[in-house]
Design a protein that fits this description.
The protein is an alpha+beta fold. It is built from two helices and two strands; from the N terminus they run αβαβ.
Length: 91
């Protein structure tokens, strides 16, 4: 693994955050309300984590000609609906 990292054959997940292999598929929430008052920017959670209709009003950075990060691999189209399973544990 160390040799593959040094040679560049494999890369860290943080270098490709929008890759389909580098995001969680399951999310377990314990005693919190991520989709409501506890989640800051819940419109983005609805769109990018669950893939539902959202209230995002601005344009995505990929569709604009603005300055983009250079430290990570940039993809203009972000993946929507990343989660396969969302479990809320409230009692």
């Amino acid at each position: 693994t160390v040799q593959a990292l040094k040679s560049g054959a494999i890369r860290f997940a943080c270098e490709q955050p929008d890759s389909g292999h580098n995001h969680p598929r399951n999310l377990f929430v314990w005693r919190s309300n991520l989709l409501g008052s506890s989640g800051k920017g819940h419109e983005y959670m609805l769109k990018y984590l669950l893939g539902t209709d959202s209230g995002i009003q601005g344009e995505a950075l990929g569709s604009s000609e603005g300055i983009k990060p250079e430290e990570v691999e940039w993809q203009s189209a972000a993946i929507e609906g990343k989660l396969d399973l969302l479990v809320t544990l409230d009692f």
